[in-house]
What we know:
The structure is a homodimer.
Chain A: E1 2-7, H1 12-18, E2 26-27, E3 30-31, H2 32-42, E4 47-52, H3 56-63, E5 72-77, H4 85-90, E6 102-106, E7 109-111, H5 113-121, E8 131-136, E9 150-154, E10 157-162, E11 170-178, H6 180-191, H7 197-206, E12 210-214, E13 219-221, H8 225-237, H9 246-264, H10 270-289, H11 293-316, H12 322-351, H13 354-366, H14 369-381, H15 387-390, H16 401-413, H17 417-438
Helix pairs in contact in A: 6-7, 9-11, 10-11, 10-12, 11-12, 11-16, 12-13, 13-17, 16-17
Amino acid sequence: xxxxxxxxxxxxxxxxxxxxxxxxxxxxxxxxxxxxxxxxxxxxxxxxxxxxxxxxxxxxxxxxxxxxxxxxxxxxxxxxxxxxxxxxxxxxxxxxxxxxxxxxxxxxxxxxxxxxxxxxxxxxxxxxxxxxxxxxxxxxxxxxxxxxxxxxxxxxxxxxxxxxxxxxxxxxxxxxxxxxxxxxxxxxxxxxxxxxxxxxxxxxxxxxxxxxxxxxxxxxxxxxxxxxxxxxxxxxxxxxxxxxxxxxxxxxxxxxxxxxxxxxxxxxxxxxxxxxxxxxxxxxxxxxxxxxxxxxxxxxxxxxxxxxxxxxxxxxxxxxxxxxxxxxxxxxxxxxxxxxxxxxxxxxxxxxxxxxxxxxxxxxxxxxxxxxxxxxxxxxxxxxxxxxxxxxxxxxxxxxxxxxxxxxxxxxxxxxxxxxxxxxxxxxxxxxxxxxxxxxxxx
Amino acid sequence: xxxxxxxxxxxxxxxxxxxxxxxxxxxxxxxxxxxxxxxxxxxxxxxxxxxxxxxxxxxxxxxxxxxxxxxxxxxxxxxxxxxxxxxxxxxxxxxxxxxxxxxxxxxxxxxxxxxxxxxxxxxxxxxxxxxxxxxxxxxxxxxxxxxxxxxxxxxxxxxxxxxxxxxxxxxxxxxxxxxxxxxxxxxxxxxxxxxxxxxxxxxxxxxxxxxxxxxxxxxxxxxxxxxxxxxxxxxxxxxxxxxxxxxxxxxxxxxxxxxxxxxxxxxxxxxxxxxxxxxxxxxxxxxxxxxxxxxxxxxxxxxxxxxxxxxxxxxxxxxxxxxxxxxxxxxxxxxxxxxxxxxxxxxxxxxxxxxxxxxxxxxxxxxxxxxxxxxxxxxxxxxxxxxxxxxxxxxxxxxxxxxxxxxxxxxxxxxxxxxxxxxxxxxxxxxxxxxxxxxxxxx
Lengths: 443, 443
């Protein structure tokens, strides 16, 4: 399926603020139109037609034929872009192929990937004589309802649309599944000197031909500096994975999202941050070994925070890679080993105790077991090991990475190194022992 | 598809040796007929008809309705079993359902699982007016050609069959895909007072209705004490996995297969052997720590050998389980940790050196990395990490378990504990480092 992106308007309110065409305004390191293209690419859309108007040259120069993004882009120019977005949308009739359905969206409306995926799942049910429109019923959540196009919906049909509608129960998200019927309605509206997309959709709504898809999830129309900030907020919040560890969720993300927001605007790659996190672990180890446990502990926690940033940047800037995932998980293990060795060294250095050797060894051997167990389970059971499902009450044991590094931070700050190593050894092995007995019922 | 197993004969030559009906003679802990049933079960065959004769009562008592084996067994009795196996095979006409194809085999012919799987893959190509017969062309490999039914084959058709055939190029393995046509041929042969299966197949062969499947892999007709021993040999050899480590293949299997042969006849389970292997590792560690490195080293190698036995018993006696696989791989890691800790303790005890702590820590942290890397790769790439494919020349690094435990044995016997720990630390981390750089091109 092809996607048609309207990028013809002038976007005055953002232009004055950013001094570049609105579709090309960068939001957390990726321009608005690029983010739309890459989000659609994740939904398996590879062919794009971009309708240009005011900034034809700039947009073409910026995106080219799409090769850099791994997609195909063709352009259609609308000389009469000033008349309204209906004229821009109608421009697509030049490329329309018979019986085709296409996605139609605005360059400046951003959607969560899941929203588009769910929308597309319904696409096969739509006939050529109707259209499909994404709408949001959760009006309390919608940002700046005032500015939205309102919809009077009955069941899943739109009865009327308009910016000034008083009697409404949903708003238009600006995401369409277009058909021949839409192009016909646009042509009809234009012949009546009505130049907006809404006018054409209204013609179809009156015939009961506008089906609605009520979205769950986030979207936003980036229109002015306020909505731009709101979009940043939404994108950053969406980076927290649903199955985040307790310490990660309650402490680390507060910092990591701030760092991600800063770094997103630079060219720093996720793998570079993975390396930085690893070197922070090395520094933590050296501080521990040099008998500066306070700084050792603090750096351990920073390691944990940076461990979140690499994934956040990867998801935010469409830089996820399989190699990155593997690189991260192996370097994380090394970081942890090195920190524990630094602590063991410190203990040994002050106490010259054989116990230091043994406890350090126990903690070291416990560290990889959580991941080892989960990965082996995945291979054998061909399903993911989920602590909240498989670990019962033991899921509260701080034996995963965010919990372990938090214990190390506390131990360093309080200068309780022997106790910290003992606790690490206990929680990691206790978790493994429990899993070994408990997992039987799931296999 | 249903399987029909002929178990009607007297089997005199083995009877005198084992003093029980031949189908019930135990071979490496599993009776011949049970092994056939369980091998077919692994090929997704769940319904069985067993044709009894001489030992009706004993076989029924032994197998029951198949519930214990997780299959359904029904019985048909052939009172005239003494006439010949053609009469026994024909007995199945009582249960035959229209247009059915069925597997027909002898209780005392054993096949590798792969042989049956490949045979069954061809089954859909066979029509109701022909039959399909497994044959072996590799006459040098066939055990006791003298005793076999010979086949004169042209292409994949059998032209003539007979025990005394002079001009032959294959032998009959006793594995058939039966059809209505086979039952008809049996009926015709019997009416001509020819009571063997071969006689009926010969009638069809003359009409070009016997298609052959030339097997690759092992099979054997267990007929007398010599072929019984040969069957043991074949089954044990088949237990060595194709992707075995170098030390495992060249040293460990020589011992483990002997142990497996002994233990197969007992009720020892694979998980019990996993535990035994783990406790051997604990003993190895204690000997190292008690400054008896020779015994520590030897026990480490025994750990490695026993690590092979659990899997061998599981495969040999159809006792594989997902839990067993997970239990084994986690306990193996613990065994290794404990041995290395024992060695570190010994070094520390004699040298009181900080270096002992650091090198022991480096070796400890290296041990889980091989498995960790492979499992994570599997999860991310959704394909198995194969050292021979992905590791290049580094596959010869003795960083996998068989190699590591062999190094430990040498180190113990030669009393070179510091050097051993240093080598372990180097090979394990070198392997991981290499993989981390090299794997990029496979992701």
